[in-house]
Amino acid sequence: MGDASHPQAKPDTAASSAARARLEADRADTLARAAALHRDFEGIVAANALIAVDDEHDPEGGTTAFERAHVAALLTQTQEHLQELDRALERLEQGTYGQCESCGQAIPPERLEIRPAAATCVHCAQPAPRRQPPPDESGRNAL
User: Fold this and answer.
1) pLDDT tier at 47 (50, 70, 90 boundaries)?
2) Which of these, 28, 31, 61, 95, could form a disulfide with 55 (CB 3.0-4.6 Å)?
3) For residues 91 and 102, what is the distance between their CA atoms, to the nearest angstrom?
């Protein structure tokens, strides 16, 4: 008798095992990066709490504010990447990993090796072409 508490797992192929290993390694690296960035952010905040900072008159005030904002932005990017990795792991479990979410075509294995969390093929990931403004009376594009 099988254990009813576990859903029936899909058979793991060599490709899905390799994909799972890439995703889990990327996730572990990203978690470590997030922890380091969090420590950096806390360190910046703690260092600023020890001194009276007057950003308007302190020549270091702008630098500290920039550092804090920079680390916060990197932390946000890291959290977003973790969410992408988690969604990719869900797609792997559902059997839709490697399939473009936009057009349904297969995502090339080379793309998945470079970007394991990719949810779209190269074609669908490209930004829409920018439209040129209409030409003015002289025939040149107006800017």
Assistant:
1) confident
2) 61
3) 14
